[in-house]
Amino acid sequence: MTARVLDGNQIRDQIQAELVNQIAELKSAGVTPGLAAVLVGDNPASHIYVRNKVKTCESLGLYSEKVELPADTSEEELLRLVHDLNRRDEIDGILVQLPLPPQIDSKRIMMALDPAKDVDGLHPVNIGNLVSGRPGPVPCTPAGIIEILKRSDVPIKGARAVVIGRSDIVGKPVAILLLHNHATVTICHSRTRDLPKVASEGDILVAAMGKPAFVTGDFIKPGATVIDVGTNRLSTPEEVKQVYRDPTERLKKLAEKGSVLVGDVQPEDVREKAGAFTPVPGGVGPLTIIMLMVNTVEAAKARRGAGVHQAATNK
Ligand code: NAP
Question: How distant is the alpha carbon of residue 220 from its chain centre?
Fold first, then answer.
């Protein structure tokens, strides 16, 4: 039996439809939620991420502003910009695209954000809120993973969940969210002993490592739900052949597009062994941007007064 595909695009569309109604209500109350996206340097992937975020804002009728700074921007200059955005009323959310150039301490920048505008949920105050179960913005990819599980009726309560990866952006926050949803959670990392055995205890397995197709069939409990967060690009035929048992289609794609996207999970094994899984592309990825939009709309509701908040939530 092949596994159920958890279609991230479809779930993104559901959330987007709900958001459109909330935005219309906010606009009728005179509020247009606004997002400022700050990009420092010329990292090509960051340019694509920010462009897609701004495009999504535009398509939803949110106000957006892209601020591009050169790679040699100093920490002080970036701090000044953040303080300025903190003060501007029409900006509800500030997104500083990571990674930042080496001369800038990203933790110091996150600390400088107004926690009420921190739509990536990375300010220590918001991390504290997340850990202690208080309301506040939740990092977008982990929030999207929980939406996928819930909207696909995957039981979380009482499940054994295994998260591979302990980054501040994905691994740790998704583990906390699974815990709040009453899963029994194990967090694995590069020093975990006997990783396949630990992983294969998971009814839910989240792979967030950044290692192409590392999670093979022996990591997967038969029937488990596998969430693949990894986004890795393969750019040579040798790399493609290493990942796929039957590489024909992907080699064609490589020749057409110059690269092939693969997750952290071996895509053929997961189809055969899991009960359900998120594909790459088209799984977790689409949720990340829409959850940023959700956080921006929530920030606008929270910042711009109880009347507006009620208008938008009393549905
Ligand atoms: P990261 O900061 O590099 O963290 C990777 C984690 O994986 C670390 O905790 C590391 O362990 C662990 N790890 C690495 N190799 C391992 C191994 N051989 N065995 C066990 N654990 C291992 O990465 P990230 O920012 O969390 O991102 C992870 C992946 O998700 C990347 O491919 C990234 O591109 C992707 N991503 C996708 C989205 C999306 O929207 N789809 C969003 C964010 C990230 P240590 O801590 O011990 O080093």
Answer: 23
**Segment 176-200, tens digit of pLDDT:** 999 999 999 999 999 999 999 999 9
- From the candidates 118, 120, 228, 264, give the one annotated as an active-site residue: 120
Task: Give the CA distances from residue 120 to residues 126, 153, 173, 277, 296, in Å, rounded to whole numbers and listed in that order.
Answer: 9, 26, 12, 25, 9
Within this chain, do residues 158 and 269 fall inside the same structural domain, yes or no?
yes
Q: How far apart are CA 210 and CA 233, in angstroms?
A: 10
Interior angle at CA 302, CA 297 and CA 304, nearest 5: 90
Q: Indicate the top mutation candidate among 216, 229, 284 to test ligand 1's pocket, ranked by most ligand atoms within 8 A of CB.
A: 229
Predicted TM-score of the model (pTM): 0.95
Counting from 1 in the atom list of ligand 1, the atom nearest the Cα of 263 is 32
Cα–Cα nearest to 73, from 108, 109, 40: 40
- pLDDT tens digits, residue range 3-44? 999 999 999 999 999 999 999 999 999 999 999 999 999 999
| Residue 230: domain span | 140-284
The total of other beta-carbon atoms located within 10 Å of residue 295's CB is: 27
The kind and range of the H/E element at 204 are strand 204-207
Residue 313 has pLDDT above 90, yes or no: no
CATH code (residue 51):
3.40.50.10860
Does residue 296 form part of some domain?
A: no
DSSP-derived secondary structure for 282-305: SSSHHHHHHHHHHHHHHHHHHHT-
